[in-house]
Amino acid sequence: MRTLLIIFLLIFGTVHAQEVLVEGHVLDEKTKTPVPYANVSFLKTLKGTSSDEDGYFYIDVPESYLEREVHISALGFKDTIILAKIISQKKKIHLKEETFELEEVVVSQSLGDSQVLNPVSSYSIKSGFSSAETPWVLALYFPNIGASKKFIEKITIHVQQNSKFKRASSKFRLRVYDVDKKTQKPNHDLIRKSIILESSKTEDFVSIDLSSMNIKMPDEGVYIGLEWLFLPYNWYTNTYKHAITNKKVVEDRFAPTFAAVYQKNQNFKTMVYGMGEWSDFAIKAPGNNENLIPAVSLKLSKKR
């Protein structure tokens, strides 16, 4: 029987204090329009949330957190750090648009000679990645092997079903990053619009065809990012008995659970983005050198 191991992206800590409501709207500084699905995290804590379709967010935090810094990130905007008490006073966060030059995109009328990186079958899925408390992006690196020019055609993300999550589907955001040449970490978003995908209870995977965007595979490779959205739509609770105290513990969780596989090829590197920075995320299989990585497949096509 397949063993289920849920990997929680957590840093443990507990704060007991009187709580206050921190709420506001995330807005585009230039257009004053709402920024949907922005991630809002209290730095050096586990507290975080996401703005909804109207840019509105709210979160209950200990009163002492009003003196803490809050990190706000959103696709297409510069990361912003601001004191929580300023948010409570002004109720608005204005984000500046992020601008940079992408490599020239070569438009091809005919794509062929496809190849699939990290192909995944249902029997190879061994575990899953889940999230709690604060927003995260889970990113898998795909190397660019060979000299031929390639384009990103299709991305497939496998998910695990969770009986505790009662909705028919959950939402997450797809990110596609180029690679920083110095740090080898995810750098710029190659897709400048927000792509929100839904995972269904009736399907074990989600696929998206990106061939019409004509995205050239960068020479340094690419990171495919899966971003949890901390919305009421994705929320559920997980109840378990504490291993030491035997007391009942109820925790907030956010769907979906991304499936995971073991990969021998060490080129497939996993990183997570949380609380304002990218970090390595390596889990080894017991007794060998295989890495547990997200069950994400990348289909590439060569220009004919």
Q: What's the structural blueprint in terms of helices and strands?
A:
Elements: E1 6-8, E2 19-28, E3 39-42, E4 48-50, E5 56-62, E6 69-73, E7 80-83, H1 84-90, E8 92-95, E9 111-117, E10 125-131, E11 137-142, E12 150-160, E13 169-179, E14 186-189, E15 195-200, E16 205-209, E17 215-216, E18 222-228, E19 235-241, E20 248-263, E21 270-274, E22 277-280, E23 291-294, E24 296-303
Parallel strand pairs: 1-10, 2-8
Antiparallel strand pairs: 2-5, 3-4, 3-6, 6-7, 9-24, 10-20, 11-18, 11-21, 12-16, 12-17, 12-20, 12-24, 13-14, 13-15, 13-18, 19-20, 20-23, 21-22
Question: What features would you highlight for this structure?
Answer:
mainly beta; globular; 7-stranded antiparallel β-sheet; 304 residues; 10-stranded mixed β-sheet
Q: What is shown here, in short?
A:
It contains 1 helix and 24 strands. It has 304 residues and is mainly β.
What general outline do the C-alpha atoms trace? globular
Mean pLDDT: 85
Largest sheet: 10 strands, mixed
What oligomeric state best describes the polypeptide chains here?
Answer: single chain
Tally of extended strands? 24
* End-to-end C-alpha gap: 45 Å
Structure description:
The structure is a single chain. The relative contact order is 0.21. Strand 21 and strand 22 form a beta hairpin. The strands form 4 sheets. Strands 1, 9, 10, 12, 16, 17, 19, 20, 23 and 24 form a 10-stranded mixed β-sheet that branches. Strands 11, 13, 14, 15, 18, 21 and 22 form a 7-stranded antiparallel β-sheet that branches. Helix content is about 0%, strand content about 50%. The protein is built from 1 helix and 24 strands. The N terminus is likely disordered. By secondary structure, the protein is an all-beta fold.
